[in-house]
Design goal:
The chain contains 7 helices and 32 strands. The protein is α+β, with helices and mostly antiparallel strands and 501 residues long. It has 4 domains: 199 residues, von Willebrand factor, type A domain (Rossmann fold), CATH 3.40.50.410; 91 residues, Sandwich (Immunoglobulin-like); 85 residues, Macroglobulin (MG2) domain (Immunoglobulin-like, Sandwich), CATH 2.60.40; 85 residues, Immunoglobulin-like (Sandwich), CATH 2.60.40.1930. The strands form 8 sheets. Strands 5-4-1-6-7-8 form a 6-stranded mixed beta sheet, with helices on both faces. Helix 4 packs parallel to helix 5 and helix 5 packs parallel to helix 6.
């Protein structure tokens, strides 16, 4: 199990152990909270986590609830204090949390400011716990808001948890908000990590501060970018302890890839874990971190991460609609990809792609349907680093489709088409002027030239015969067809027998 949030809720419990604490829980109810982690929505995970936290709440501490995005879509003012800070009524609190319907924006900075203003009237120390699964989407700077609140004179601290926040830029937003108020930022990637955090919180709230401890970390073997490395460790193995890579000289809370070593049941204070090396070559720190201690980093060593060679071989020019053969060499990893992207676009941009199959990957990709300048990219860990590129010009393929100018509704018509082959391409009828994804009867291309029989639409009107790439990406050839109403045909024998007369 990987560490992400072993002390967010332990902070909640630790602060709640102080008499007269005023706390506000700020819950994200934006639409993205319906996203799933491990087959369960983030909304459900948040509800279950809050229920466990409240089960250990101390009665002398006040607790309130602020949420955002729960009433209206696209409204940055959708922030509401649902429960004023006061003695906890567990049943009422959970009924409110369970009734939230995630749907709106993510005004997280304004929500924290709102919570702080609500707590301002009290003379007691104020703590806000923000749980959010996304970036600020309402044009406020979390860093600036955090600094503003810190200077306001309120005895106020914000601890922030990024729940399933994978983008480092968005993590940095949340981290800055917390640190500018004297608080801490924690990253949670799944339900298990939230559960582990609560168990660690119970330990922190019921036990005295731990005694000083020592730890060691050692990587087994040389490091190259994104490679998996075995790390031997020794340490106190307290709940929430973890081993991580971190940038050299970064703050104690910084991390890259990490693994929890402090589990529910203690072992013998040593073990071996697997970490993924950073995507950038150069020096990196390997650390043992015990968040319940100060200082929290009990061991650190500086290691050198070696670079790796990478290359992409492909034609200079490729036609739309026909797969292109690509040979790529580079690191292997389940989150790396090789694929097309618009030339000069951000690292997050991608079109068709494939995962590396080995140190040398022989793959076929369908090029973009729009002609233009693109590049093939070898990207590490989804978006961390582009390690190799290859410029490719995509040109339009020759394509045609022909059939009758008119057809009776429901009749069969013969169609001839030529163009690129592809399992996602199709030739068929569609309403005139409709988008590329509209269709009626269709067939797949059967070679460079396709001879097919199609059924005309059953409703009279203006239609097109189309040659469409990749299901709905682009219409590369079309011909108008007028579909006329069906006419009933009556046939009678040339003569009638006396009985028939």
């Amino acid at each position: 199990m990987r560490f992400a949030l072993p002390l967010l809720f332990s902070l909640l419990f630790a602060t709640s152990s102080m008499a007269g604490e005023n706390m506000m829980l700020v819950l994200d109810a934006s639409g993205s909270m319906w996203g799933q982690i491990g087959g369960k929505t983030k909304v459900e995970i948040a509800r279950e986590t809050v229920a466990e936290v409240l089960g250990n709440w101390k009665p002398e501490n006040a607790l309130g609830l602020v949420t955002y995005g729960h009433r209206r879509k696209g409204d940055c003012s959708d922030i509401e204090t649902l429960i004023e800070p006061g003695p906890l009524d567990r049943a009422a609190f959970m009924a409110t949390v369970n009734g939230l319907n995630a749907k709106g924006m993510t005004p997280l900075s304004a929500a924290v400011r709102h919570a702080a203003e609500t707590l301002r009237s009290s003379e007691r120390k104020a703590t806000v716990i923000l749980v959010s699964d996304g970036e600020e989407t309402c044009n406020l700077d979390p860093c600036a808001v955090g600094a503003e609140l810190e200077k306001s004179g309120v005895d106020f601290t914000a601890h922030v948890v990024g729940f399933d926040v994978s983008d480092p830029k968005h993590q940095a937003q949340l981290r800055c908000l917390a640190e500018n108020t004297g608080g801490r930022y924690f990253n949670a990637r799944n339900a298990d990590e939230l559960g582990a955090a609560i168990e660690g919180a119970v330990s922190v709230s019921t036990e005295p501060p731990p005694a000083p401890a020592t730890a060691t970390v050692a990587a087994q073997g040389a490091l190259t970018i994104t490679s998996e490395v075995q790390v031997a460790w020794t340490g106190p193995e307290d709940r929430g302890d973890y081993v991580t890579f971190a940038p050299v000289g970064s703050k104690d809370g910084a991390y890259l890839d990490y693994e929890t070593v402090g589990l529910k049941t203690k072992g013998n204070g040593k073990g071996t874990i697997t970490l993924r090396a950073p995507a950038e070559a150069g020096p990196v720190e390997l650390r043992y971190v015990s968040p319940i201690r100060k200082p929290s980093v009990l061991a650190r060593v500086v290691l050198e991460v070696g670079d790796a060679e990478a290359s992409i071989e492909a034609p200079d020019t490729v036609p739309t609609g026909s797969k292109v053969k690509i040979t790529a060499r580079g690191p292997v990893g389940k989150y790396h990809w090789i694929g097309f992207a618009p030339k000069g676009s951000p690292i997050t941009a991608y079109l068709q792609y494939a995962r590396p199959t080995g140190p040398v990957s022989e793959i076929e990709l369908m090029p973009p349907s729009e002609p233009g300048d693109y590049e093939l990219r070898y990207v590490l860990n989804e978006r961390e680093r582009i390690i190799a590129t290859r410029p490719v010009k995509v040109v339009a393929s020759a394509a045609s489709v022909s059939g009758p100018a008119t057809a009776m509704a429901g009749d069969t018509v013969k169609v001839t088409a030529s163009g690129p082959e592809g399992s996602g391409h199709w030739i068929g009828f569609a309403p005139a002027g409709s988008d590329a994804g509209s269709y009626r009867d269709y067939v797949r291309p059967q070679g460079a030239t396709t001879e097919a029989t199609l059924m005309a639409p059953t409703e009279a009107g203006d239609y097109e015969l189309r040659y469409v790439l990749n299901e709905r990406e682009k219409v590369v050839a079309s011909q108008p067809v007028k579909v006329t109403p069906a006419v009933a045909k009556l046939e009678a024998p040339a003569s009638l027998s006396p009985r028939q007369e």
